[in-house]
Amino acid sequence: MLKIFKHLKGLSWPVTAIISLLIIQAYCELALPQYMSEIVDIGITQRGVPDSTPLLISQQVAAGVDFSKIQLDYLLNKGSVMLAFSVAVMLTAIAVAFLSARAGASIGRQLRDKVFKKIVSFSNAEIDRFSTASLITRSTNDIQQVQMTAIICLQMVFKAPIIGFGGVIKVAATQTGMGWIIGVALGTILMIVIILMLVAMPVFKKMPVLMDRLNLVSREILTGTNVIRAFGREKYEEKRFDTASIDLKNNQLFVSRVMALMMPLMMFIMNGITLAIVWFGTRGVDYGDLMVGDMMAFITYTMLIVMSFLMLTMISVMLPRAIVSAKRIEEILKTEATIYDEKNSHDEKLDKVEGIISFEDVSFRYPGADEDALENLQFAARPGETTAIIGSTGCGKSTLLNLIPRFYDVSAGRITLDGIDIRDITQAKLRSLIGYVPQKGVLFSGDIASNIKFAGNWISDGQMRNAAEIAQANEFINEKENHYEAEISQGGTNISGGQRQRLSIARAIAKQPKIFLFDDSFSALDYKTDIALRKALKQKTKDTTTIIVAQRINTILHANKIVVLDEGKIVGIGTHEELLKNCEAYQEIANSQFSEQELRGDKVERKALSTPECSSGFEFESAIGGDGCKNE
Fold first, then answer.
1. What is the mean pLDDT of the chain?
2. Are residues 193 and 238 in the same domain?
3. Which residue among 174, 288, 416, 472 sits deepest, i.e. has the most Cβ atoms within 10 Å of its Cβ?
4. What strand order describes the sheet that includes 374-381?
5. How many domains are contained in the chain?
6. pLDDT category, 599, cuts 50, 70, 90?
7. Which of 271, 303, 338 is the last residue of a domain?
């Protein structure tokens, strides 16, 4: 747990102040029983002037001062001191509570900040390793557990030993002969704590894992609600959730029972100690070997000692959970991202970026995989050209695209931008040059404007509207009541899939990048929108490098270069016509998407469509740079 605090700053002064206040508080608490003993023995129970009476009182009595007045003055004097000490205890307790809460909140804030920044710096490999559900648990529940334990530790850990050892010293000074009672009590408490720790520690270690499991199941169910309903699996998923929830409940119940068992045991010990002290103390008072005030002080000191050990016991129960949580947090903080920026970057060489992307004998293998997902890729994408990637499902198309912005790093070979290895370019610089549109349109809660301007506030309203117009999103935006201020819910669930895709494309266009990466980003668009978007996009991308991952051939017919992948390897590179002649894998894809009559035609893209925009006498040409419907 202490390893966590090396990551934190600004805690030295509140911790020092808390320790100082706790010392003052402990001193006052330890002094009060002694004053109470003197008040009882001298100011209350005395009826004469015994040998133990202080010299000043004896002198006053000898001078003829009334003894009752002397007792009253003594009570007022000592009572005032006790009142002052009690006020000091109250004020220091308030100050300690305030400072410890402030320090605990600072610990939680700093840990959340550092953990979040660390997670954001992770590549996809680290995120896959921990899992999203586990990262959420570590960022919330685990940090909360450490924060709560830190607050309690600041209030108790430093105070308990001072009170405990100070109480033992004070008890030894009373010379009551009952020190053995404290020894028996502390030995019993220590034995109970050890037994509870041995039983509870394995359960504490399981709790974060069970919480991860519950978060994982909850996240899967909530994000897959429509699929669950469509397949009628509500009952199964309810049972799966109940299983994860019940496992966590049973674990928490066991912990609660341990805590519930500990408190009665401690109270039983405390009551037993009080009974033993009264039993043996009253006999000493009866024999004249012990003063009533001394016995009362002994009881108070004993309770302080036992309470100090009780505080340590409570901490010992909470600490294992906090230690487990701290280890999980530390695991994130000490994990080094596999993708990082080199100290000597070459950003200065990219003042004027052309945008030539070259794959030079690139291979890639996912962490923990047995074989390469991509193998020996060799091709280049140039500005002003459209490079398309096509292949069967699972051949590595999206993986290839994810290597360019360094979501993953290559396992062998290298990818260059204008001849510079992208690993020698800072991630911020590299990604600032890329407009990335993922396969699934990802939007963020806010409004339409904030999503299109996601790249930065430097994007003007004019650039935003122009990007929306190119992406064919302005039509549905203008239909909304608040237009660009229309609300977008989390994940964009309040708009259709095609609208999400168009806003994702507009977001990339508004960034004005040098390189466009489209990961099958037109699949949710209808033909009319697809045609209009590509025609508008052609003008926007005439000076940029465009790489498209596609499933459909008619998406990439007019690409300057088509790269055909099969099981992670390049099996063909060329134009559509060239690949139809000499690439068997491409021919298979074409045969699965077009009829023999269409393939035998001069151009497969000349395909009559019975759509409103392509009526009889018009033909369709679908591709980036295609003219859409054409009059013969």
1. 78
2. yes
3. 472
4. 374-381, 357-364, 412-417, 420-421
5. 4
6. low
7. 338
Q: What angle do CA 578, 581, 582 make, to 5 degrees?
A: 85
Distance (Å, whole) CA 53 – CA 552: 105
- Looking at the structure, tell me whether residues 224 and 371 fall in a common domain: no
Q: State the number of CA atoms in the 13 A half-sphere of 255 facing the CB.
A: 20
Q: Cα dihedral angle (195, 196, 197, 198), rounded to 10 degrees? A: 50
Q: Cite the DSSP H helix spans in 224-233.
A: 225-230
Asked whether residue 296 is assigned to any structural domain, the reply reads no
- Decide if pLDDT at 526 tops 80: no
pLDDT in tens, 154-212: 877 778 888 877 777 777 776 666 777 777 877 887 787 777 777 777 777 777 788 87
Count how many residues are written for the chain. Answer: 632
Q: Residue 14 is encoded by which pair of tokens? A: 């509140």
pTM of the model: 0.68
Q: Are 556 and 397 in contact (CB under 8 A)?
A: no
Kind plus residue range of the DSSP H or E element containing 570: strand 569-574
Token code pair at residue 381: 């994408």
CA 452 to CA 509: how far, in whole Å? 9
Between CA 307 and CA 315, with CA 310 as vertex, the angle to 5 degrees is 130
Those residues whose C-beta lies under 8 Å from the C-beta of residue 286, and which sit 6 or more positions away, are none
Among residues 520, 542, 518, 531, the alpha carbon closest in space to that of 385 is found at 542
Distance CA 451, CA 461 (A): 12
Domain termination residue (choose one: 511, 533, 548): 511
Residue 193 structure tokens:
């704590």
* Residue the block writes with tokens 């030079």: 360
Residue 572's domain spans which residues?
Answer: 347-433+513-623
Distance from C-alpha of 99 to C-alpha of 12, rounded to nearest angstrom: 12
Report pLDDT digits (tens) over 92-101.
Answer: 989 988 888 8
* Cα torsion through 111, 115, 116, 120, rounded to 10: 160
Q: Is 24 exposed, middle or buried (0-12, 13-18, 19+ CB in 10 A)?
A: middle
What's the average model confidence in pLDDT over 491-505? 82
Tell the residue number behind the tokens 């430093």, with chain if given: 158
Q: Are 559 and 387 in contact (CB under 8 A)?
A: yes
Using the 8-state DSSP alphabet, how is residue 558 labeled? T
| Lookup result for tokens 């607050």 | 151
- In the block, tokens 């008040």 appear at 39
Residue among 380, 431, 424, 437 nearest 407 (CA)? 431
**CATH number for position 412:** 3.40.50.300
Strands 412-417 and 420-421: antiparallel
